[in-house]
Amino acid sequence: MESLMLSIDKHGIQVPITVYEDGNHYVLIDGERRWRCASKLNLKAVPAIIQDKPTELQNLVLMYNIHALREQWDYYTIASKLQRIIELYQTENGLAPNEITLSELTGLSRGAIRRCQLLLGLPDRFKEMLLVELEKPKSQQRLSEDFFIEMEKALKTVVRRLPVYQGRIDTIRDTLVTKFKNNIITAVTDFRQLSKIATAVDTFGVAQKQAAKTLDQIFDPAQKVGIKEAYSAAVEFEYVERKALRYVENLSDFLEEIDSDEEVDKLDDVFISKLRALYEHIGKLLGE
């Protein structure tokens, strides 16, 4: 603010403020910091672009494009205003805007819009929890926006793969919040492993009954079982094995390629040494 004031004092306002006329006065749309500096400097006039009075929808859209990213609003603030944009757009156009339309209107990425929609879909009591947290300094926030976003993404995956949990989803949220507060769930990113437990039903052919048994341990408030422990016991090996398989396939493709191109002599000595050690290790595993 101080540097802007010094610049305006020396060079004047280089970028006009934007206003619209409302009765016998003007309403500021963009340029609040420039206007405040001009007032403190007692400038008699400022350059301004005068626009037609916007509709509420136009005003919100303009506010998004000017302020949302520049001022780094939190996702809940963005989401609450996004809800109003959706309502106004639907009133004016007869249908709700899709992600592409919302992205074009607001300048937000489709990923950001999806995260906002996850927050908007929370039951009111969880929104109230989040509002209480957002009033605290960032360093003291425990139940952050990221927590609720990651939790909701994971629960959507769980319900999609195992619809049996749909009717219990609200009590499941309560349990997950409590376990996070009590450090049984230790990190926000643990929810990605919750998704993996559910997707293992299709990815590895894990029986729904087996996956549900693992999830029930996490969703049971009486059991002190976190996501990490349940994931590790149930499906972690399968995911690590699949990752290793990709490495094996890539190595196999590479070796076939250099063999067919007769480029074996170009291999580094260290690589050959590692390959020999791997060969011996594989031999032991296969009992050869």
TrEMBL record:
GO terms for biological process: chromosome segregation. Residues 1-57 form the ParB-like N-terminal domain. InterPro entries: Chromosome_partition/occlusion, ParB/Sulfiredoxin_sf, ParB_N. GO terms for cellular component: chromosome. SUPFAM superfamilies: ParB/Sulfiredoxin (SSF110849). This is ParB-like N-terminal domain-containing protein. It comes from Rhizobium leguminosarum.
